[in-house]
């Protein structure tokens, strides 16, 4: 007699394979779900493995298009960056994956979902808040927070033994545990790992590649690399684009960040495409947006980044902020030229039909419709408050 | 009969030399003032030039120490960056220079100050707000905003002719007009210029330099380059430090920015030392500051950067914010290791006696004083609001 | 030969009557424009007066509907309040008036607009920024900033003499100079004046009136007073509503505020209807909006109030913020019951089809779908950071 | 054999009396602690009751002075108000009470603390975060979150029966359960209750009382009521002050608020003294603070209010923000005159040796050191951006 059906976020790796078998042992019917968000993975092999381990159904879903369009683009529009450095490549994938998992759970009549995220990390939160928001009655099984599970599997050795005992194929060269965190945009590592996605800047080519990126309403429309048109940065042709970015070693960071649960943790990230897009978007945005609109939008972007990091993509506030940010991007159209070289992105120029940059107005040689005398009044009125402040302080000084 | 005494911010260049003579023509006694804030300049030659042009007195002041300690350090503490990209190397020098100019004006009994900043730029504002704040009764002569002046000197040619007529030495190879904007921290250019301070990343050495920077209360205490101790990044030994940073091509940006007066303008900046310090400070700060303190401080830093850019260093709000930011840095002590290579700064590691990073707490292998079950409650309570929102939307959907 | 045509914002009072004649003297053709925004005024008399003084054309425009719908409603949605106290009743009328003035100027081919606002106040800025934003080529004649004018009319006596000389009817009992600042929403006074719009709370009735206000998307839909339906708070039936609010003495404040030009000034305001709407809207908003959406919207509202106060209604940032705030109000539907008594508004209750208030969820007697144990985890995870902070401080204490 | 010692926050009421006995049943030694923060309570009776129920030790602590000086004053300085309406009278008492409870626990060697707060409210969080922050190793027993307890005591009837069985005196007229929420500043109610602290405005006296409140660095120094000096608003003479405030019915609100755990709940609050102080402080602050300092401080105050509401008084960020706010108040000195009448506070005037209000500067009759022409330049420069925006939109319109 089954306890019910669980949809398990399955990576094909050791951890979630063990969880699959353990859930069956516990009396659940298990459906596995593996999202293709651009990571390098042998999806067929993963499917066969899940089936051989007793999954009742196996879903392999290509989410790349929706991942880019519904999740990455809004993040680029927002210039989303956490604590001034992290481009949120892992965070942005979580709601995309969990949404589909919930769709499968509803469609298959499953009351349970499960995942292999640890009990100290951010991903458990991102995953589960999405699930609760989209399927409030769902029950979540998080084995790494269940004492019977985590006390049984204290180290990797315990998982290996369990795997051997239950016929779970054990990786010969143990695949790095970060595998679930790789996607189209980014890869994250345990500190001990080597960088995997990007070339070392030292080994990168000795001449730059020149790109042109075109934006429409703050969203990347197309990319030209050394003049050849690449439609859609994350389209099927994306591989080309990524190879180029990867070979220049762009987007590597080694940081300490603050998790939502209140710990500091070290993270090593490679975000080649995201880094280039961040810089290009920033440039075209400053070029086309009014100063004060941008300032307000910047504040909203900081909030958006926190929501995204903390797992609140599917919250009323995040929906509201995404709407506002999208509205702010209406005039963010244009092209940015940049070069990529030895780990760095250099903006070379930009052009836009909607630019507020007025060469004549700003020129030192042309007065145009600008009267320099006005600046005197502007400065003097701005000084009224400062002079009053000084006057008062002077009075106080003279009294004491 | 003199109209009074003017203290003129004098650069030694063509513009301010013409202004010097013009002010004399207009009937003023002129005292020139030239600040040494680390720019490459032949100060003796400038002194002689001013004297030969009839300056009543000539002040050449070495402000390097106070520039670093009172202006650059607070900016580094604040992670001051304007519109996400510009490290404010010009902005931060203005109040330092204008403060001394005001001190000279008071000491010499001058009622006037003058400068050569244009009528469309930010520098006029930074300069004059400082003057009004510190010497509210001062009168400011800004020739580039006086019709008699700017209508007479429409182009460079007019200045050259005036110079020849009045015995002002004319530069053979015309020195770039940015000369006043170079300082210890940074250089800014007109777009047409070549980069001058830093090497091109393409021509930079093929192997990185490794630095260690030590911070105390968010302020840079010392720098070690390849193990040799360099006391004080901007001290007499600064040259060494700068050469190393410069030869790696760090800190070049080409941006469009929003001026205070409401125009967009293009700026080319080189900020080698400032860029390295920005990254190093950011790293040690995230390592040592509590998450929420940092978040509040980050918001204050954004405000500080705007004040700095707009010229409000000597305002009550900027004094207040500097105090708050300084307070936030009490625990920002430690060392950051980084490598500098081909235009990029890579953080290699950090250490601190005051770190909140707790390796045991964050470890996946050690539960320590952390109960993973708590995370379930944390997530479920965070989901209360999201589920209510969904419930309400569901009700509405079912009604329509 | 005319210098051109000026559209003058004309109040019918002494000041703008003198300005009308003075502009003619200066060689302009003058068109007067008087907006009806709900102030008590004899518009016919004003029209005749302007004609008799030589206005080429006289426009009297009833802007009450657009004033309410396009300006007051967005301000109520925003909970717009300046420096925590001032409900912006004067500020919100300015862009409405100036917009129509600009429409008239364009339609009549006038290159000039003029107004009687003083050179130290906010209204000149609100007025002129609207004009420049909507008609960038317009030329503005602000007599109180023109030395020939303000040096000639140093005091009221000079105006009176000028009036007598030019056949301008002089008020016998001098009408208070605040007349232009009265409108549907509010009245503002010079400090010396008596309150005019509202009854003194001491003289107010000894029993409260009970109102019910209905909102739809954050906008006031209708008002019921003691059960009789009043459609539209500012509609023709508004008089009734206002009389009731006025007779209870609601909305009087005596404050010192910070003007945009940097001075502090004292203001006495009466805003009966605006005060009631502010409280009613705040109540229904908190009832229906998600907590975090409201928090973000609150921040936007603070910014909106500053823009409104400073005259930036027609700016890209204000348009953006109005859009965002309007979006936030999508679910702000419902009814608020309140009583008005002796100068105070008391919320009695509220109801809404879109409320997130869930009596069962919050009840202490019903657990419902809420597990109190989750709160333990929530609290302990929130404490992780606090305990780490304490641990570190303890270590430091033990070392010293 | 005892399980250990618990320090129980004891109110003397039915709930915590039952908890006392239940803890003993569970095998703990119980120390009770009752804080005097100004609530009306028979402390002697409470002491005897606790002793008779088997408390090992009974602490009755008069915290009124520290409550006012260390908790209420900083809140007044901050203008702390939650969601624009709630003056945080309950929130601000919690860290004060919990701090002493922790001191007692440490001093008595108790490893446990306990309280009677429910599992859905804010107080459990405020209480426990303080405990964890100040005593990270403490163990907390929250019976209303322990299934064995809350499943046994489902309704009030179960508590009554338990009380009878264990000789706990049962109140004849059941005392309202809000008793713990009354303090010097405020009282909070269950919605069904009557207002208890303040008179109904309808029954309030028909003539106002006039007060003068003196501030020093943003803190209330003394109060004069109808000319008689009352030293310290919360000092022993506080009763007089409170009676006066209470008899005018000031500070009643009926609101729906957002709890930290994500629910909306209705609250009825009476905050007579706090409301008067809020308005008086706001007035003197706007009078004496620079506009921009106040704006930044206002943002910090909003954050402070959230921290206070959510229970983060003893957090690094709240300590930081309190420091900053205190710094901002350095010049907030002066006296405010106000009248209290029928539920409302009217500011009558204010004076300060540190005011930035400059009557001459703001006067319309005196130009003083102010040149109205400067305002033209100020406005025109502010319009540069708006005109550019319009120009661009015009271009776009003309193209389409």
TrEMBL record, chains A, B, C, D:
GO terms for biological process: argininosuccinate metabolic process; L-arginine biosynthetic process; urea cycle. It catalyses: L-citrulline + L-aspartate + ATP = 2-(N(omega)-L-arginino)succinate + AMP + diphosphate + H(+). One of its GO terms (cellular component) is cytoplasm. It is an enzyme of class 6 (ligase). InterPro entries: Arginosuc_syn_C, Arginosuc_syn_N, Arginosuc_synth, Arginosuc_synth_CS, Arginosuc_synth_type_1_subfam, AS_cat/multimer_dom_body, Rossmann-like_a/b/a_fold. Keywords: Amino-acid biosynthesis, Arginine biosynthesis, ATP-binding, Ligase, Nucleotide-binding, Urea cycle. GO terms for molecular function: argininosuccinate synthase activity; ATP binding. It holds the Pfam family Arginosuc_synth. Residues 188-387 form the Arginosuccinate synthase C-terminal domain. Pathway: Nitrogen metabolism; urea cycle; (N(omega)-L-arginino)succinate from L-aspartate and L-citrulline: step 1/1; Amino-acid biosynthesis; L-arginine biosynthesis; L-arginine from L-ornithine and carbamoyl phosphate: step 2/3. CDD domains: ASS. It comes from the Eukaryota. Its EC number is 6.3.4.5. Gene3D superfamilies: Argininosuccinate synthetase, chain A, domain 2, HUPs, Single helix bin. Homotetramer. NCBIfam families: argG (TIGR00032), PRK00509.1 (NF001770). This is Argininosuccinate synthase. The gene is ASS1.
């Amino acid at each position: 007699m089954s306890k019910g059906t669980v949809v398990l976020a399955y990576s094909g790796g050791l951890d979630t394979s063990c969880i699959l078998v353990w859930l069956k042992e516990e009396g659940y019917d298990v459906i596995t779900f593996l999202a293709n968000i651009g990571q390098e993975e042998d999806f067929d092999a993963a499917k066969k493995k899940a089936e051989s381990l007793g999954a009742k159904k196996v879903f392999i879903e290509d989410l790349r298009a929706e991942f880019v369009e519904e999740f990455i683009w809004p993040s680029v529009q927002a210039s989303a960056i956490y604590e001034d450095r992290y481009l949120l490549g892992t965070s942005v994938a979580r709601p995309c994956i969990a949404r589909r998992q919930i769709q499968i759970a509803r469609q298959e009549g499953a009351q349970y979902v499960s995942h292999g995220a640890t009990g100290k990390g951010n991903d458990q939160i991102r995953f589960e808040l999405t699930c609760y928001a989209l399927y409030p009655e769902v029950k979540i099984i998080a084995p790494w927070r269940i004492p019977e599970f985590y006390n049984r599997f204290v180290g990797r050795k315990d998982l290996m033994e369990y795997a051997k005992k239950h016929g779970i194929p054990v990786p010969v060269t143990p695949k790095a545990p970060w595998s679930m965190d790789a996607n189209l945009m980014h890869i994250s590592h345990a500190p001990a790992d080597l960088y995997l996605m990007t070339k070392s800047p030292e080994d990168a080519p000795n001449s730059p590649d020149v790109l042109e990126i075109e934006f429409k309403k703050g969203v990347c429309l197309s990319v030209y690399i050394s003049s050849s048109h690449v439609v859609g940065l994350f389209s099927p042709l994306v591989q080309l684009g990524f190879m180029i970015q990867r070979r220049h070693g762009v987007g590597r960071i080694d940081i300490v960040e603050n998790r939502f649960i209140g710990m500091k943790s070290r993270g090593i990230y490679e975000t080649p495409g995201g880094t280039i897009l961040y810089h290009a978007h920033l440039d075209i945005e400053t070029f086309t947006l009014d100063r004060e609109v941008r300032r307000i939008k910047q504040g909203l972007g900081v909030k958006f980044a926190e929501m995204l990091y903390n797992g609140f993509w599917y919250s009323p506030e995040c929906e509201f902020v995404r709407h506002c940010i999208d509205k702010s991007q209406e005039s963010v159209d244009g092209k940015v030229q940049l070069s990529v070289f030895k780990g760095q992105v250099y903006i070379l120029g930009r052009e836009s039909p909607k630019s507020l940059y007025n060469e004549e107005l700003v020129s030192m040689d042309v007065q145009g419709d600008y009267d320099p005398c006005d600046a005197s009044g502007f400065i003097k009125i701005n000084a009224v408050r400062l002079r009053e402040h000084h006057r008062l302080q002077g009075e106080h000084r003279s009294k004491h």
